[in-house]
# Entry
Amino acid sequence: MTLVIEQIPALSDNYIYLLHDSATGATAAVDPAEAEPVTDALARRGWTLSHILVTHHHHDHVGGVNALKRMTGCRVVGAGRDRARIPGLDQAVADGDTVAVGAATALVLDTPGHTIGHVCYHFADECALFCGDTLFSLGCGRMFEGDAPGMWASLTRLRALPPETRVYCAHEYTQANGRFARAIETGNPALAARLAEIDDLRAAGRPTIPSTIGMERDTNPFLRADRPEIAAALGLATTDPASVFAALRRRKDTF
Ligand code: ZN
Ligand code: FE
# Structure
């Protein structure tokens, strides 16, 4: 492992991540919602920003991009498909591309659904996934631009990553997601254990993020739409995963 990962709370419930490669000094900010908490952390650490990695165009992920780029001249990386909506884009990436942050390398995964141009950054050697608003702990992003089959395909792609992969999503939504997950899967012991852990973490004022892919596989209903107990809990006749996922997402939207 070469990356030091600093997790910075921003806005009301966002996380911005700073990735620092101590060998080269390269430092990337993932989804800088605002500039100030990033510049504060950089100053505190004595790091210089070299890259910004954007997962998608929403304001709570790119709000700090222009100011940070102006201050540091850093290189902005994001989906070429959303070129018109990502401020200051320097390096347009697509599925299968790699992005180097010093000696560390991320594979770009195209994960449409929340937005059409959403991408995730997977640092395999670091066991770290930066997944923006596609996958949350115990939840997933709303489908603002994509459809259920596409979002389900994106999520199953993330689910297939090694179980020890740390999941760095962009929001602290875990506790609210947990209330929904518990309503869907009453008899899942792994979920019950995770919910107790989440309550303890939040009571202590600590983040529930990162989670891991293995933990999400076992407890996140949105990664479990191909399991018969989820279809049964929703009272569905179909077990087609994309249809079950769509029903689950609709249920959560009004929960
Ligand atoms: Zn978003
Ligand atoms: Fe967001």
Observations:
- The domain at 3-253 is CATH 3.60.15.10 (Metallo-beta-lactamase; Chain A).
- The pocket of zinc ion (ligand 1) is lined by residues 56, 58, 114, 133 (CB under 6 Å).
- The mean pLDDT is 97.
